[in-house]
Structures are given as C-alpha cells and as structure tokens.
Amino acid sequence: MTQTARTVRRTTTLGLSTAVQRSRRLSREGVLEWMFTRAFSGLVYPQIWEDPVVDMAALQLKADDHVVAIASGSCNILSYLTAAPIRVSAVDLNGAHIALGRLKLAALARMTDHATFRRFFGAADARENVTFYDREIAAHLDAVSRGYWEGRGLSGRRRINLFASGFYRYGLLGRFIGTGHVLARLLGGHPRAMLAARDMAEQRALYEKHLAPVFERKLVRWLVRQPASLYGLGIPPAQYKALAADGDDGILGALRLRLERLACGFDLKENYFAQQAFGRRYGASADAALPPYLQPRNFAAVKARAAAVSYRQSAITAFLEDQPAKSCDAYVLLDAQDWMNDAELTALWSQITRTARPGARVIFRTAADERLLPGRVPAAILDQWRYDETTSRELCRQDRSAIYGGFHLYALPEQAA
Description:
The chain is α/β, with parallel strands linked by helices and 417 residues long. The protein is built from 19 helices and seven strands. The chain has helices at residues 3-20, 28-39, 52-59, 75-79, 95-110, 114-123, 127-137, 143-150, 171-186, 200-210, 218-224, 237-244, 250-264, 272-279, 299-305, 316-321, 342-355, 379-382, 389-398; strands spanning 66-70, 87-92, 309-313, 328-332, 356-366, 386-387, 406-411. Helix 1 (3-20) packs antiparallel against helix 2 and helix 3 (52-59) packs antiparallel against helix 19 (389-398). The chain is globular and about 55 Å long. The N and C termini lie far apart (51 Å). The mean pLDDT is 89.
C-alpha cells in the first residue's frame, strides 16, 4: 500500500470512528461499531444506492444553484448535472469515494465520446479502460487520488485494474451482493433468473420461485439477526436497530419487504438498481437502464458542467461550518442522519439553517419509515423549515432503489429571514 493510500485510509478511519463509535470499546456494541468502522474504511459503494431521478424531482434544481451533497459513489453527484448548470460541493468521510469522484471528473475532462465513458464507468470490465487511464487520465489526477488508484489492494494489483474486471462486483456493496448470490444459490434460489422476466407478472412469479423461499431458511434467519452481516449494505449498528424496529417481523421482515419491492415493484428493464442487484452489472444493450449521468443523451451536458463539481474529504457539518451564511440552495444527506445522535443532528441542522438561502431544500432517507428529526432537533431550528409529507411519501414510493423506509423533503420558505 502506498503512503498516499495509507493516508486516505487513516483519514477515513478517523472520521468514521468519530461518526460511529460511541460505546465502550470492549462492550458488545463497541466491538460492533469498531468492526463497522474497519469494514467501511475502504471502497464501499461502487454505485450509490439512491435514485437520482427522485432526488431531482424533490430538489427542483435550477441554474447556478449550489448543491452540497454526500458523495458516496458519485452517480448522483454527476446525475444532478443533467438537471441544470449547477455547482456541486461533494463531501464524504470515505477517501475511497472521494478518489472515485475525482477519477470520474478527470475522465470526463479527457474523454471526447460517450462510448468511451460508458465502457469505463458503465461496463467497467475492459482492459482498454486501464490503458486509457495510464495514457490519458493519470497525469491529470491529484496526487492523493492517483496514489489511491495506483496503490495495490489485497490481490497485489493496482486498484485501477478493477475497471478491467467488473468494477461493480467490488467494494463492500459489490462483494455483499456477490455473497448474497452465492448464498441464494446454495439454498436453492437463483437471483439472476429475475432478469429473464418479460413483464411484471413474470417478475412476481420468478420472485416467488427464486427469492422468497430463501427467507424461510434457518441459516438466513440467523444471519440477518447478526448486525455485522449487513455491514455490506452500509448499515451501521444504530441504523440496524432502527431497521429492526420498522415492522412486525423485525429485520427479516424489513429486508424481505424491500427485496420484494425491488424485484416486483418496478419494471426491471427500467430499473438499473435491480440490474445491479440481480445481474451484478448494468445491461449491455443500447437501450439498457442506466443512471442519468451515463445515458448517451446526457454525456455532453455532464462533460460540460463537470468542472463545477468539487470534492472534499470531510464530515458534512464540518464542511458547512466553513461556508458563508445563505450560500447554499440544496442539501443531499443520503441516510447519514441515521448514524447521528441528537447533538450531532442539532449541530448539522444549525449549519444547514445558517447556510441556506430562502427556498433551499434538504432531502434525506431513513432506514425506517420515521420522521427522525422532530423531538431531536430543537423546535427553534426545525420550525423554520417546512416538511412536505405528501411529496416525501410519494417520492419514496417512486424510488427505484427500493431499500429505504422513508424519503424526506424539507424546504425553507422563500420569505425566511
């Protein structure tokens, strides 16, 4: 591992420790928190698991808006550029996610056609991608990101080689999905069979045949009762508790309901999340479902606007502390607040309220179907915002990622002081 890669991982671990570890180190909860921090310190999300189409419907982005968003895999960061020429400040505690975002920006700056871009970040499984990186991208990356991609993982190969062997199969999420496929097959299921469905009626039939029975097996019931077994989904101990309490059948019922929704709630041909979950890659056809930033019709706009995206390895509250008052128009918090205690939520919303322009919007997701903030953030702060429950519930129903219990939209009235 290069010194640069060590620095990225050390900074990531330190930030995650602050965000996650609250219990005594030698307690059961403390051990689980430590395990999560270690698991989350490398690449977690090769693809972000939130639907950017839903995000853009909620945010109603317009030209020159300043968006502050948690980066994750950067699919959403770049997809927002399809809505309008905006400025995006992307932040993340995880240095591998920052390196991935900066790689995408550097690639956009050097690529002149959509086919090359899709081969690199859509298929992500060709030796030509590594050749293009070495010839065109590497010299234009910042030193930290270049050190990360040219550092060597456990296989002994440079990390950039992941784009020659199916990038989306790697990272914590990619390996979790792969493990789920192996386990399902061992127990008589066949997740990939879902992709043979010709319509939603066939999706239902294939789900009942290949996926639903797996949840009845004793091994699966035991596994999902172990919080560490879901770290691959990016679910820390605090979020696990919320998810386990969301429904009558605990964590097993919540997971079964959300997998059923992913498999049966949307046309699989139009849902790239389902393509990744059941096929472990995006579709290869010309009309395959893709995130907005990878769609051919959006390549020119994304490329032209990408220079307005910046990245910083940081907690979002710390980033906002450095921003001027009334300087931001939209905030994308993903599910990060599920990790936070009351003091951290109050600190975050104090900074959001200070930096928000009138009309600003905040979106986030929760593992459970709950409001999360009332009673935890002081009313003096939260009452300045308007919660749009009707739109929140409707957009949650439209979210093709299908794994969250709640989608939430808050807006600052235009006449706010």
